[in-house]
Each structure stands twice: as C-alpha cells, then as structure tokens.
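Field reference: sequence -> structure
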Amino acid sequence: MKQPNWIAPSILSANFAKLGEEVDSALAAGADIVHFDVMDNHYVPNLTIGPLVCEALRNHGVSAPIDVHLMVKPVDRLIEDFAKAGATYITFHPEASEHVDRSLTLIRSLGCKAGLVFNPATPLHYLDYVMDKLDMVLLMSVNPGFPGQAFIPSVIPKIQEVRTQIDVSGYPIRLQVDGGVKLDNIHSIAEAGADTFVMGSAFFKTPNYHDTVTQFRSLLG
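Structure field:
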C-alpha cells in the first residue's frame, strides 16, 4: 500500500552559511523529511558533506527524520558513522557495496531504516532478493553527482515497476524519487507511484518555502 506523501527538501541546494536556519524554515513550512546528499568525489564526481554536518543538525535541534543518501564507495564505514550522527534513513547504491544484503543488515542493526538507490540506467534485479530488508527504494531521475539537472522521463515506467513490486511484496516500503522534481512533473511522478519527493533548487531557490510546499501538495492531491 502506498505510504503518505512526503516532501523531502535536499539540503545540497540550501544556503550552507546558515544551514540550521534553512532546515528549520523548511520544516516549519511543512516539509516532512530532510534529504542529505553525501558525495565522495569517487563514486560520483563531486564532494559534499559528511557525518559531522548530520550531527550538527541534530545538535542544532532538528528532530525530523534525516534521510542520508550515500553516493560513496565503499559504503559500510560511513553507514556506521552516519548512524552515530543521527541518521534516520540510510540509502546506498547497490553497485557501491560488495555485499548488498550485509550492508542493509548493518544499517538496520544500528537502528536506522535501510534503502537502495538506483541510477536511471541501473537494473532493478537487486530488489528480487532483499525486499524484506528495505524501508525505502530511491529512484534517481538524474545521473547522480550534481544538483540542478533535468528530470529524465524514461524513469516514469521504472517508478511504476517498483510501485508494483512494493505492492506485491506487502512491505511498507517508501518509494522516493530524486532529480529534477518540479511543479510541472510532480503530479505524473506521484501518479506513477512515488510517495517521497526530493526537491533541491525547486525548493530552496524559491522565495517562500511555505508557498512552495502548498503548491506542491496541491498537485499531489
């Protein structure tokens, strides 16, 4: 069964000079979960933030779920670091782990929710073996590494396919989409079966976060 819709602002597009305030404002405006992009200049060609920033947000007083998307290789050491730093969800790319089942089990053993991330051209066959260990599936609708990219339309049937797999499984797995999510496509993304919507510049580059949330929710129904 599809989960309630969540809006997930990606702090990669926030003003890092006042990150705590930015996250507070996003949550006060009605966002549901904080999306936290971790890039290592190895798995993807960019370098962003680590567990100390996650811990700083918790120490600042952020109590909402923090959704850590690991675009790193290897993943297991950072899984432990982010669990200690206060992550709620930890998701990773299956091709970045030597042992996908072991990494998912590690995340859950540390008290976090676990998820897999699929790039636009990554096949979904990994899901056949680990649905019972998943709390989230994240489908990238851009190639990872840089913010501000355009949505890749061919991901829509992939969303539909994963929605069917989740429904058949009977597990309460969230289906998240990240990359180029905007006012002009969020309805079709939701119609395809997504329930968690990552927004970077479409959220943090707008003048009024409350109005932005209201606009997006009106399109989600």
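Note: The chain is about 35% helix and 20% strand.
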